[in-house]
Design a protein that fits this description.
This protein is mainly alpha-helical. α1 runs parallel beside α11, α16 runs antiparallel to α17 and α19 runs antiparallel to α20. The longest helix is centred in the middle third of the chain and has 35 residues. The protein starts with 23 loop residues before the first helix and ends in a 7-residue tail after the last helix.
């Protein structure tokens, strides 16, 4: 492919059927609105119970990890401004099998976030009497709670049917609120209730390094920081994707990381000593089911607690809304690549992939059954999310070697170092999720192969024009990576048998990941094959040349 700088047409209707109506603020706010969701309502409490005040270190490590992944995505997003981008980069680099696999990981991640946000909304709503029958004491939903959850999912889908322009305006308005409320809580609570002794009185790191590391995945830190990819998923609807995608991606991560680290510091400092006198793992105070609102009440800021309870509906609701959008765009991308039926790529008169929205609703409803509590869903989605992100560094390495001539509106500094490092980091985050989460993820992966693989076999046997080309040679490393991660997790110290002790397990994961990274680069599709895959998409999805 020639080294061209794609110009964006002035028409609002793209040849793919999507509308290019979203500007820089809409893209950035889509990502920020996804990052500032239920994670801020629960993240600080869950993290400090897992790691003590050293949870601050956990947040910093998590932020660095996400920045590394976002840097890689920023360059790829500018190179390939297509809808559902994270599901499509591995398709270009490694052909059909890898593309189908990472496409499924991306869809699985997007489809399960909205139910998590609904869980958070219902959990905080328990403050009001009318909502107290929606959850059992262990956090699982009652029958009436499931009914409410289904109705909330239906609202997310209904708003999305108004089109991306209406969605962008709705989300932007909600995101201004979502940023203002946590920042307000930080400064108002810290102004009169900052106790520096809280950081050391019961030990700064009472659970050691293992607590710090396990908090990154297990307590929701990575889950809270995820969401930067929403701008990339909407690339097919961006007015100027090459300019705006890198800015939106990196800007959203910076905003989210600063807010979350400040939230953790203030949450720890504002607590009365009686709340954690028996140890951070036994943190307890009146209203802890809604941690920040409960803390505001505890320190005599009842009016702020009311604002926070209202925000507990708006913040998760906004995130659930945008992830419902992302789910339909990822399935749109899967269909465009031939991994899913073409009905997923059909759009209505507003440019909305209508069938993908309906299926996102169905999937969200199903998620309330096997994973009914917020914490269980968070553990599952964190590993699914990072598994999806792991495909981007691999694809980046391939494109750096095979497509040096391709236009890059944003070029990642030291990319040949950051790319393998970000893949190692992604593997570590997956591992820190724990064996109990990973074996469930393994079942979901097998289900995806059955569903998408069945369609691929059908399309190939019927010689359909959109039948995907399954390149097993280019993806030979993938089954080894998935099985290897499972084996290491089963033997490791994060929910596994413990035969692989702490630090040795991290060394093994790092060495294994580096080996997979360079194996994947060596076995990837050739330049001509990659360019052919890209050209097939450029015709219908990317801005006109």
């Amino acid at each position: 492919m020639a080294n061209v700088d794609h110009a964006v047409p002035q028409t609002t209707r793209d040849p793919s059927g999507l509308r290019r109506d979203v500007g820089l603020i809409g893209l950035m706010w889509a990502s920020v609105g996804s990052i500032i969701g239920s994670g801020w309502l629960y993240g600080a409490q869950k993290a400090v119970m897992a790691a003590g005040p050293a949870a601050i270190i956990s947040w910093v490590i998590g932020a660095v990890a996400i920045v590394l992944l976002a840097l890689v995505h920023a360059e790829l997003g500018g190179m390939f401004p297509v809808a559902g981008g994270t599901a499509r980069y591995p398709h270009y680099a490694f052909g059909g099998l890898a593309g189908m696999s990472f496409g499924w990981f991306a869809w699985l991640q997007a489809a399960t976030v909205a139910p998590i946000e609904v869980e958070a909304m219902i959990g905080y709503a328990a403050h009001w009497h009318f909502a107290q029958g929606f959850q059992h004491t262990d956090g699982t939903l009652t029958l009436s709670g499931i009914v409410v959850a289904v109705l909330l999912m239906a609202v997310f889908v209904a708003v999305n049917f108004f089109g991306v322009r209406a969605l962008a305006h709705t989300n932007s308005a909600a995101t201004w609120w979502k940023i203002a409320v946590p920042l307000g809580a930080i400064f108002i609570i810290a102004a009169g209730h900052f106790h520096g002794g809280n950081f050391t009185s019961e030990g700064f790191a009472p659970f050691g390094a293992k607590g710090v590391l396990s908090a990154i995945s297990g307590s929701g830190i990575i889950f809270a920081l995820l969401g930067f990819e929403q701008a990339i998923q909407l690339a097919g609807e961006s007015r100027n994707p090459q300019r705006d995608l890198p800015r939106a991606t990196l800007g959203s991560v910076a905003i989210g990381a600063v807010i979350y680290i400040l939230l953790q510091v203030v949450f720890i400092a504002a607590l009365p000593h009686s709340a954690f006198a028996h140890g951070w793992a036994k943190l307890d105070f009146p209203g802890i089911s809604g941690p920040w609102a409960g803390l505001a009440t505890l320190v005599g800021l009842g009016w702020l607690a009311v604002v926070l309870y209202v925000d507990a509906v708006i913040s998760p609701g906004g995130t659930g809304l945008i992830y419902t959008t992302a789910t339909s765009r990822v399935s749109f991308g899967l269909a465009k690549n031939g991994y899913a039926p073409k009905i997923f790529a059909q759009t209505d008169k507003r440019g909305v992939p209508w069938f993908g929205l309906i299926m996102s609703f169905v999937t969200g409803v199903v998620c309330f059954l096997p994973f009914p509590s917020w914490q269980e869903l968070v553990g599952f989605i964190t590993s699914a999310s990072v598994l999806m992100y792991a495909g981007a560094p691999l694809a980046y390495g391939v494109f750096a070697d095979r497509l040096p001539h391709f236009a890059r509106p944003y070029r990642l500094p030291a990319g040949k170092v950051i790319s393998p490092l970000s893949f190692v980091v992604a593997s570590l985050i997956i591992y820190w999720s724990g064996w109990d989460t990973l074996w469930r993820l393994g079942i979901a992966i097998i289900l995806g192969y059955v569903l998408l693989g069945s369609y691929a076999w059908y399309a190939t046997s019927k010689e359909l024009p959109d039948a995907p080309r399954m390149d097993f040679k280019a993806a030979q490393w993938l089954p080894v990576y998935l099985l290897g991660m499972g084996v290491i997790s089963a033997l490791g110290s994060f929910g596994g048998s413990g035969k692989l002790p702490l630090w040795w397990d991290i060394l093994v994961i790092a060495a294994f990941s580096v080996g997979i990274y360079y194996w994947a680069k060596a076995s990837a599709s050739g330049t001509e094959e990659i360019e052919r895959s890209i050209d097939e998409v450029v015709v219908v999805d990317m801005p006109a040349h």
